[in-house]
Every structure is written in structure tokens, then in C-alpha cells.
Amino acid sequence: MEPSLFSTIPARDALNFGYGPSFDPKKVADWLDLDKRAVSRLSAVSPSSVRYDSHIPKAVRDRLEEIGSIVNLVAQVFDGDVGKTALWFRSTNPMLGDVSPRDMVRLGRYEKLRKFICAAMASHEVVKGRSVSSNASPSEH
Q1: What's the CA gap between 121 and 82, in Å, rounded?
Q2: What is the C-alpha separation between 91 and 80, in angstroms, rounded?
Q3: Is residue 102 very low, low, confident or very high in pLDDT (cuts 50, 70, 90)?
Q4: pLDDT tens per residue, range 23-33
Q5: Is the CB of residue 67 less than 8 Å from the CB of residue 110?
Q6: pLDDT tens digits for range 51-94
Q7: Are residues 122 and 3 in contact, defined by beta-carbon separation less than 8 angstroms?
């Protein structure tokens, strides 16, 4: 199974952030414990502009929706287990320079984290595809 152009979108919304009109950006900010300063840095707006009502700045909504999608992709790796997903985001990771994924987001290094996760997801899918095909019976080839 080759990684797909569409594999950057999670199969389901394990963390119930919503999609499109039902997306709740405050849930993403709360889940990652992002304060207004962190959200403003991520979305390049002033801290006083960060709000979660019907007047939310487009940059804030868009960035938090992207981050929510990445969180749900990680949840997908853990079969939707929210606890494991939360632990992964809180734990320091040697592949990320001994920084937790959550801190990478909070420090404004979201783009680097996103690329790392997408590359790891692609590798995971390729390996998963190989292991499935290598375990198939000869009649399935």
C-alpha cells in the first residue's frame, strides 16, 4: 500500500474536534493546553485578536483546524485511543530533539512537527502494507 495524497486527512475524528462548520477550535486549543499567546504565535495574529466565537480570525481557525487534523492522524496510529494520543503529545521524543510534540506546537514549530508526522505516517502505511502482503497466502497474490 503506497501512501496516498489524501493520507494527510484522518479517517475519523477520534478527539471530536469536528470538521468544517462543526469544527470547534477551542477544543483543539484546550486539548493541547494552548494559551492565547501560543495560539497568536501559531496563527500570526495579536494575542488580543484570539477568540473562539463567531468572530474568530480566519488564521486562528485555519491553523487550529490543521493542528486538530494532525492530532487526529496521530490518534489513528493508536487506533483512536485518546489516552495514548495525549501521552504521545506530552512525552519528550528523541526523534524531535527531546522535545514533546505538544511543546513543538506551543513553540511555533508546528510545521516541522506536521512534516515529521506525515513522513512517519507514510512510512507506517508502507510498512503496514508490506506486512499485510507478506502474510497473505499464495492464492491472495
Answers
A1: 17
A2: 18
A3: very high
A4: 999 999 999 99
A5: yes
A6: 999 999 999 999 999 999 999 999 998 999 999 999 999 999 99
A7: yes
If one counts every other C-beta atom within 10 angstroms of the C-beta of residue 40, the result is 19
- Measure the CA–CA gap between 132 and 89, rounded to whole angstroms: 28
**How far is the C-alpha of 75 from the C-alpha of 127, rounded, in Å?**
18
SS3 state of residue 65: helix
Gap between the Cα atoms of 62 and 110, Å rounded? 13
List all residues 6 or more positions away from 64 whose beta carbon is below 8 Å from its beta carbon: 25, 28, 29, 39, 42, 43
How far is it, in rounded angstroms, from Cα 64 to Cα 56?
Answer: 11
- Burial of 68-99, coded b for 16+ CB within 10 Å and e otherwise, reads bbbbbbbbbbeebeeeebbebbeeebeebeeb
